[in-house]
Amino acid sequence: MQNASSGKGKAVIYHPPRQADEAIIHFELANLLSEDQTLALNTRLGTLTLLTQDTASARPTVLVEQQFTSGEMNILLPLFQNHPHYCRYEVILASFNTGTVTEAAIERYRLRLQEAQFAGVWDYEMRTVRNVLSRARLKLRDFGLEISSILETGYLLIALPMRRVPRDI
After folding, report:
1. In terms of Cα–Cα distance, which of 64, 60, 36, 61 is closest to 50?
2. Are 146 and 162 in contact, with CB atoms under 8 Å apart?
C-alpha cells in the first residue's frame, strides 16, 4: 500500500525547462515501476515514454509511449515530482492554470479552493482539472499507473494491479 505524507512539508516547485538539455525529464518512480524501468517525459513534444534497459544489447528499449496535451502535462508533472507522496489539490490547480508552480501560486489557489469550499462551489472550481485528469488517467493505464484521489487532500500515483491472463483449462 502507498504511504501518503501529511502534506505539511514543503511543496515541490516546478519551473518549466528553459535549456535544450532540460527538455526531457526522467522519473524512476520507486515502488511503481520495476528497477530497470524509467519514465522519460518530453516537455516540448508532450510525450511520455516508458523505457527499459535491454540486457542483451545494453540499449534502452521503448515499452510504451503516449502523447499528452499541455493541460495533461501540467497535471502529470507535479504528480511525478511529488511521488511517492500525494500532490495537494492546490498544487495541481496552480500547475494546471499557470503552467509553473510557485509558493505564491500555491497559496493563491489554496485560498481560492478554501473560498470555493465555503461557497459550496468546490466541485465547480475543480471540474476542468478533473476532466483533464480523467483523460490523463486513461493514457497512464498503458504504463501500469493510476491516479488515485485522496478525499479532501489531493491525488496520488499508484500502480495498477497486474492483469490476470485467463488460463486454458
Report:
1. 64
2. no
User: Torsions phi, psi of 74, nearest 5?
Assistant: -65, -25
Edge-first strand listing for the sheet containing 145-150: 87-88, 154-159, 145-150
- The answer to whether 64 and 143 have CB atoms below 8 angstroms apart is yes
pTM summary value: 0.79
pLDDT exceeds cutoff 90 at 133: yes
- Beta bridge partners, 148, equal 156
Torsion of CA 15, 85, 112, 10, to 10 degrees: -60
pLDDT digits (tens, 9 = 90+) for 65-104: 999 999 999 999 999 999 999 999 999 999 999 988 899 9
If one compares 16 and 97, the residue with the highest pLDDT of the two is 97
> For the chain, which residues make up each domain, given as ranges?
20-150
| Neighbour tally for 142: CB within 10 Å | 14
Question: Distance of alpha carbon 119 from its chain centroid, rounded?
Answer: 29
Query: Which pLDDT score, from 0 to 100, does residue 16 have?
Result: 46
